[in-house]
C-alpha cells in the first residue's frame, strides 16, 4: 500500500527547516525561518506550542531520546535546550561564531553534537550544558553532524563537498569521502551503524560502508536533495528534494519505491518516527505534513532478512507479500486474544507511564543542577573578585 498523508499542520509563518518526532510519537517538533520552534500534538484537537526565544531563523530541531528535551540551533549562532511543555523554558549554549545548522543527541542522551557555518563541529554535555571540544578540518560551512548509534563515531557533511568520519574519543578525522560533485546538505547513519547516507546539491544520494569506506549505492535524482532519513528497519530511506517531492528508496533492492507529491515548492526536511510507522516532512510552503508509512504493515524487519536470499525480484516480492499478510493477521489475533490478560496489559501501561515520569523528573533535576552550577560559577567569580580586591587593598597598605 502506498504511503498516505495523515495530518497537516499549519502555523509557521516561513519555510520549515527541520522536523522530528518524540519517542512516543505524541509530539512533533518543527523549526522554521520564522525564528520559532513549534511542538505539535499528534492527538487531534490538542493545541500546538509555539516557542519563542531565538533571535533569528531556527535551522534545526531534535527531541532528546527520552523526549523530555528539544534541542534547536539557529542563525542567531546559539543552541537552545527546551522543555517541551506549556512554559517552554529554555537554556542557551553559546560557542559557535556563525549560524548553527544541525543539532543531534547521542543515543544515550548524554551528548549533543552541533554543526555550524563557522566550519566547526562542537560536542557538548547535555546535563552540565558544557562545551567539550571542537572538530575543525572542514574548509567550508558544516551543514550536518550526527553521532553513530553507538556514539563512538561522528559523521559530518559540508559545503567543502566532503563527508567526514570522526572518532569521538581520539577526536581524529578517520576518513573523508570526497565523491560528491556539489555541497553535501545532509548525512545520517544507518540504524546498524555500518553505513551512512549523504544527500547533495548534485542531485544524488550516496550510501557508503564506513567499515571499508566504499560506496555501496548511488541514487541519481533530478533535483537538489535537502534531507534524508533512514527507516528504523534500515531497509528504506526517505528523501526530501527541491522538486517538491519526497522519495522512498528501497535499499535492499536498490531502487525507487515511491515518489510523493504534497508540498508546493521545495521539500526541505523529512524524518521517520522512531517506530517507523510515520514520517514527517516540511517545506518552503510553511507546511508540516505527517504521512502514514503503510509499506511496513507487518513486523517486516525479520521477514526482509529471511527474504534477502530470494531468487528473483519477483519471487521475493510474492513471498514477502504473503509473509507480511500473515504478520498482519497474527498481530490482529494477538490484540483480540483474551489469553493475554487485561492485568498484564495494564501493568505494561503503568510501567511505561512510571518510566516516562521518572525520565521527566530526571530532566527537571538536570535543569536544577544546571541552574545551581551557573549560580556556583557566579559565586566563585564574586569570591575571586573579593579576594583580588583584598589583595589590592593589602598591597596599597603595604606600599
From TrEMBL:
WD repeats lie at residues 9-50, 51-82, 93-134, 135-176, 177-218, 225-259, 260-292. Belongs to the WD repeat POC1 family. It comes from the Eukaryota. InterPro entries: WD40/YVTN_repeat-like_dom_sf (IPR015943), WD40_PAC1 (IPR020472), WD40_repeat_CS (IPR019775), WD40_repeat_dom_sf (IPR036322), WD40_rpt (IPR001680), WDR55/POC1 (IPR050505). May play an important role in centriole assembly and/or stability and ciliogenesis. The keyword Ribonucleoprotein does not apply. It comes from Lophotis ruficrista. Keywords: Coiled coil, Repeat, WD repeat. GO terms for biological process: cilium assembly; microtubule-based process; multicellular organismal-level homeostasis. This is POC1 centriolar protein homolog A. Pfam families: WD40 (PF00400). GO terms for cellular component: centriole; ciliary basal body.
Amino acid at each position: 500500500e502506498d504511503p498516505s498523508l495523515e495530518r497537516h499542520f499549519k502555523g509557521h509563518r516561513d519555510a520549515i527547516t527541520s522536523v522530528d518526532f518524540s519517542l512516543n510519537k505524541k509530539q512533533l517538533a518543527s523549526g522554521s525561518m520564522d525564528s520559532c520552534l513549534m511542538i505539535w500534538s499528534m492527538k487531534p484537537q490538542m493545541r500546538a506550542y509555539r516557542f519563542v526565544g531565538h533571535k533569528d531563523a531556527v535551522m534545526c530541531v531534535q527531541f532528546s531520546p527520552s523526549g523530555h528535551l528539544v534541542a534547536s540551533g539557529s542563525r542567531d549562532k546559539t543552541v537552545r535546550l527546551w522543555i517541551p511543555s506549556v512554559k517552554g523554558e529554555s537554556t542557551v549554549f553559546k560557542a559557535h561564531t556563525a549560524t548553527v545548522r544541525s543539532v543531534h543527541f547521542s543515543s544515550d542522551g548524554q551528548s549533543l553534537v552541533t554543526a555550524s557555518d563557522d566550519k566547526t563541529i562542537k560536542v557538548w554535555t547535555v546535563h552540565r550544558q558544557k562545551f567539550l571540544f571542537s572538530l575543525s578540518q572542514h574548509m567550508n560551512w558544516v551543514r550536518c553532524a550526527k553521532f553513530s548509534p553507538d556514539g563512538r563515531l561522528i559523521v559530518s557533511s559540508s559545503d567543502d563537498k566532503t563527508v567526514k568520519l570522526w572518532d569521538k574519543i581520539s577526536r581524529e578525522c578517520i576518513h573523508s569521502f570526497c565523491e560528491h560533485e556539489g555541497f553535501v546538505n545532509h548525512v545520517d547513519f544507518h540504524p546498524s551503524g555500518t553505513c551512512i547516507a549523504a544527500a547533495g546539491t548534485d542531485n544524488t544520494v550516496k550510501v557508503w560502508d564506513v567499515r571499508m569506506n566504499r560506496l555501496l549505492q548511488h541514487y541519481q535524482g533530478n533535483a537538489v536533495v535537502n534531507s534524508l532519513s533512514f527507516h528504523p528497519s534500515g531497509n528504506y530511506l526517505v528523501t526530501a528534494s527541491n522538486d517538491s517531492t519526497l522519495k522512498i528508496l528501497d535499499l535492499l533492492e536498490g531502487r525507487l519505491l515511491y515518489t510523493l507529491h504534497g508540498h508546493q515548492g521545495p521539500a526541505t526536511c523529512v524524518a521517520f518516527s522512531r517506530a517507523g510507522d510515520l514520517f514527517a516532512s516540511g517545506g518552503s510552503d510553511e507546511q508540516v505534513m505527517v504521512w502514514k508509512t503503510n509499506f511496513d504493515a507487518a513486523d517486516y524487519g525479520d521477514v526482509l532478512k529471511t527474504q534477502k536470499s530470494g531468487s528473483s525480484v519477483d519471487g521475493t516480492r510474492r513471498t514477502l507479500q504473503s509473509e507480511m499478510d500473515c504478520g498482519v493477521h497474527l498481530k490482529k489475533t494477538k490484540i483480540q486474544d483474551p489469553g493475554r490478560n487485561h492485568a498484564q496489559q495494564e501493568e505494561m501501561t503503568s510501567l511505561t507511564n512510571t518510566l516516562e515520569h521518572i525520565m521527566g523528573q530526571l530532566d527537571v533535576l538536570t535543569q536544577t543542577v544546571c541552574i545551581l552550577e551557573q549560580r556556583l560559577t557566579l559565586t566563585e567569580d564574586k569570591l575571586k573578585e573579593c579576594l583580588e580586591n583584598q589583595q589590592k587593598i593589602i598591597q596599597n597598605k603595604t606600599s
